[in-house]
Specification:
4-stranded antiparallel β-sheet; WD40/YVTN_repeat-like_dom_sf; globular; WDR55; 38% strand; 2 helices; repeat; WD repeat-containing protein 55
């Protein structure tokens, strides 16, 4: 049966009739608002309250660190921009990516990518002014890209006779490169050629560092030696005595008075400035290796290892301060520090770039006195994302009862072997 228009719903109260007699009810069936006895139209003479004011949307909650970046292939190298929230990554397929990162959820995004390298990209570095990105590859080429749009500005093909492994910007015009054969070259971009070429190492050059005066260049090599080169005089100075294992990293500490080299055997070797021939001290970490190392303060470094753990280490007095973070079971390839020293980025074989809040490290004070600690205990967690236990990466897989018992000890691995 078809409903008639204007009929009042049965749940509403009927208005009293104005007239009696036989035509009663006729008004009830008329359209609403017409005829006698009809219902009043909706909104007719009815006052409605204005809608309540809408509250402004809540500001998105800031994260402690930017979100992880997932890559299509494992990254060999990462670098953080010297002034802006930008991260560059080079992967095993030869692709180079630039990301903008932020602690706002969903705000970390890829800005551009470059596929100019024909083989694996081994290292990336921003120029001192942040305008260009330097990349080197297994294809023996050096590329210089513009940061704004990733345009290939300069390409030096066959820069070395063997695959390139690392690159270091020295100033606005000079850069250094090291290859798998142990050769170092220093390039002057104004001339478009190398102004220093020297093959002193018997194995690959893994890392490089330069002093504050841009005069002395240090190299770490797979042959276990550290090389010293004078950039100003364009000559080789000396090699250190060989150490056990490959030297994988080199950095300056203590306002340039100390040099630290990481080793594949899990040891940090220390040299005095102007005493490069022999080590002045050594600190054996209980780690499978020290594959990469970056300075955080004048006394604290962060190291990456084959076990996927990122450790904070104080130098002189030598202490392992604790665990900054972890790529579960995946070897760490490279670490990078933001210019304000508050954020650490890491890449590993899990095809992820992770960020860690290291703001607490700058205020840590290490006492000369070392109380006796339980050897082999879990590392102290230094960040909210660090595993609570974790001298080894299987700690998260242990039974809950065992993990709880270890956490109760409150010990951390900070004794030198």
């Amino acid at each position: 049966m078809q409903m008639r228009l204007g009929r009042a719903p049965s749940t509403r109260t009927r208005l009293p009739q104005q007239h009696g007699g036989g035509g009663g009810g006729g008004g009830e069936r008329g359209p609403a608002g017409h005829g006698q006895g009809g219902l009043r139209g909706e909104g007719e003479g009815v006052l409605t309250a204005p809608p309540p004011p809408q509250e402004p949307p809540a500001a998105p909650r800031l994260r402690d660190t930017p979100e992880d970046i997932s890559l299509e292939a494992a990254a060999n190298a990462i670098a953080l921009h010297p002034a802006r929230a930008l991260l560059a990554a080079g992967d095993v397929d030869g692709d180079v990516y630039l990301y903008g990162y932020s602690c706002l959820p969903g705000d970390t995004q890829q800005l551009w990518s470059s596929g100019h390298h024909l083989k694996s990209c081994r290292d990336v570095a921003f120029s001192p002014d942040g305008q260009r990105l330097l990349t080197v590859s297994k294809d023996k080429a050096i590329h210089i890209l513009t940061v704004e749009d990733g345009r290939l500005e300069t390409r030096i093909a066959k820069a070395h006779s063997t695959a390139l492994n690392c690159v270091l910007p020295i100033d606005h015009h000079l850069l250094a490169t090291g290859d798998d054969g142990g050769e170092l070259k220093v390039w002057d971009l104004r001339k478009g050629e190398a102004i220093l070429e020297s093959r002193q190492h018997e194995e690959y050059i893994s890392a490089m560092a330069v002093d504050g005066n841009k005069k002395i260049l240090l190299t770490a090599s797979g042959d276990g030696t550290m090389g010293v080169f004078n950039i100003k005089r364009r000559r080789f100075e000396l090699l250190s005595e060989p150490q056990n294992g490959d030297l994988t990293s080199v950095t300056l500490l203590k306002r340039g008075k100390k040099v630290a080299c990481g080793c594949s055997e899990g040891t940090i070797y220390l040299f005095n400035w102007n005493g490069f021939g022999a080590t002045s001290d050594r600190f054996a970490l209980r780690a499978e290796s020290v594959d990469c190392m970056v300075p955080i303060t004048e006394s604290i470094v962060c190291t990456g290892s084959l076990d996927g753990v990122i450790r904070a280490v104080n130098i002189l007095p030598n202490r392992v301060l604790g665990c900054v973070g972890q790529h579960l079971g995946e070897p760490i390839e490279q670490l990078a520090v933001a210019p304000d020293g508050q954020l650490l980025a890491s890449c590993a074989h899990d095809q992820k770039v992770k960020f860690w809040d290291i703001s607490s490290l700058g205020s840590m004070v290490v006492d000369e006195y070392r109380k006796k600690k339980k050897r082999g205990g879990p590392l102290k967690a230094l960040t909210s994302k660090a595993p609570g236990s974790g001298e080894d990466f299987f700690a998260d897989l242990r039974e809950e009862q065992e993990a709880t018992g270890e956490a109760a000890t409150g010990s951390d691995s900070d004794d030198s072997d």
